[in-house]
Write a structure and sequence with these properties.
The complex is a heterodimer of chains A (200) and B (215).
Chain A: E1 5-15, E2 18-28, E3 33-37, H1 44-52, E4 59-65, E5 68-71, H2 83-94, H3 98-107, H4 123-137, E6 141-145, H5 153-168, E7 172-176, E8 187-190
Parallel strand pairs in A: 3-7, 3-8, 5-6, 6-7
Antiparallel strand pairs in A: 1-2, 1-4
Chain B: H1 2-17, H2 22-39, H3 43-61, H4 71-75, H5 78-84, H6 89-118, H7 123-151, H8 157-178, H9 186-212
Helix pairs in contact in B: 1-6, 2-3, 2-6, 3-6, 3-7, 3-8, 6-7, 6-9, 7-8, 7-9, 8-9
The chains are: A alpha/beta (200), B mainly alpha (215).
């Protein structure tokens, strides 16, 4: 992970004919964390999807070095299979072994739930399962969209610890949140500052 | 290759669990048992028209699983997660097409045997029907998958899927049913060509549809 990098250069995002933001530049190297802030609907999730390459940038360039792991509001785990198998599908695609899943489930305190079908999990447990999928992926760049939503205090601590471990190992974390997150010394990107003027 | 296997294995396990496997089979058998009630118990008439009827039933049966082929994975974020891993939509659709055919083609061909008995088809016709279905079901599976990618983000996609698929399926029906009364093998070759084309374009056209539908 030591050569992980994420560089945004003058990025603008157009959605539904509306320019959400423009001129966002960001350079992150190994061990760097960034926090996207701003009120609802301002384009935090869109910026994360642009970073992930799922949305094309309307202007500007994005350079990524290293694999990407992302969570958003969608679970992307098969509902009818036990949690460990649902995570195992993604670990197989990532080339990660069973020990990576075990470590990730332990990091999110999910080990006792490994044989429970995903559909039986509560909202907070599902959120932790998504984070476990990110941890198990072994990707260098984590893009977390509202990772603390639905988590209790103890789980937010687990999230903070997982993020700290990932940064210490030379990874990159970009998270979008409207609430404070336990991420040490992040680069704060307030998207309010990049709004396009009306009428453009 | 391992990646294709992991993708296809998940699709197979899902269709097994959801019991969606039995829907086309049950539909085909239902049509075959209702058809004699509609046209009467005239064995000669049933034998002459039954093969074509089974082709229509197979074609309509291929539309039944359309709404669970792509839309659930799109809505639950699975398609995005696969894209994040650098796996092209084309690869995903190749794996999905293979898995979908395995869960659709062979069960339908097996169900055709009791259905053919209900319609009093003779041995030679059954053989031609099975050969035709062996060549035609990959195309029916591909067509179902293609319209599933095209309609994934839309409401009431089932009805639209039917409207989209049926015109494209006309060549399959003409040549497929044509093999039943044709000794020269020409219809079989045309069926093979039509089938090959649908199977070949589905991963690319469907991949483009998934990318275009991403917002």
């Amino acid at each position: 992970m030591s050569d992980a990098a994420l560089r945004l250069n003058d990025v603008a995002c157009l959605r539904g004919g509306r320019l959400l933001f423009r001129g966002v530049s960001l350079t992150l190297g190994p061990g760097d964390g960034a926090l996207l802030t701003g009120p609802n609907g301002i384009g935090k999730s869109s910026l994360l999807r642009v970073c992930a390459g799922l949305l094309p940038a309307f202007a500007g360039t994005i350079e990524r070095t290293g694999g990407i792991a992302m969570t958003d509001e969608r679970l992307a785990l098969d509902m009818d299979v036990p949690l460990v198998k649902a995570l195992g599908f993604w670990a197989n695609l990532d080339g990660a072994g069973r020990d990576a899943i075990d470590r990730a489930m332990a990091a999110m305190a999910l080990t006792p739930l490994s044989d429970i079908p995903v559909r039986m999990l509560s909202t907070g447990q599902r959120k932790r399962a998504m984070l476990a999928r990110v941890i198990a992926s072994g990707a260098a760049i984590w893009l977390l969209d509202e990772p603390a939503n639905g988590l209790d205090t103890a789980s937010i601590d687990l999230l903070g610890r997982a993020v700290a471990t990932h940064l210490a190992a030379g990874g990159i974390v970009v998270s979008a949140s409207h609430q404070p997150l336990p991420i040490a010394a992040p680069t704060i990107i307030a998207i309010d500052a990049y709004l396009a003027e009306d009428g453009e | 290759m391992t990646m294709l296997w992991h993708l296809a294995r998940r699709d197979l396990a899902q269709s097994w669990r959801s019991a969606g496997l039995w829907l086309p089979v049950a539909f085909l058998l239902l049509v075959a048992s209702l058809y004699p009630f509609a046209v009467g118990p005239d064995a000669a008439l049933l034998a002459r028209t039954g093969g074509g009827m089974l082709w229509i039933a197979a074609l309509l049966a291929s539309l039944l699983p359309v709404d669970r082929l792509v839309a659930p994975d799109r809505d639950s974020g699975v398609l995005d997660q696969i894209a994040l891993r650098g796996i092209g939509e084309e690869m995903l659709l190749i794996a999905r097409l293979a898995a979908h055919w395995i869960g659709f083609g062979p069960p339908l061909m097996i169900a055709t045997l009791p259905a053919a008995a209900l319609l009093k088809l003779d041995g030679a016709t059954i053989l031609r029907l099975e050969i035709g279905l062996a060549i035609g079901t990959p195309a029916l599976a591909a067509l179902g998958l293609l319209v599933a990618t095209l309609t994934a983000g839309l409401r009431s996609s089932g009805a639209l899927a039917g409207l989209l698929a049926l015109p494209l399926a006309v060549p399959l029906l003409i040549f497929g049913a044509g093999t039943l009364g044709d000794g020269s093998g020409a219809a079989l070759k045309f069926l093979g060509a039509a089938s090959l084309m649908l199977v070949a374009i589905t991963p690319f056209a469907g991949g483009a549809a998934i990318r275009a539908g991403r917002e």
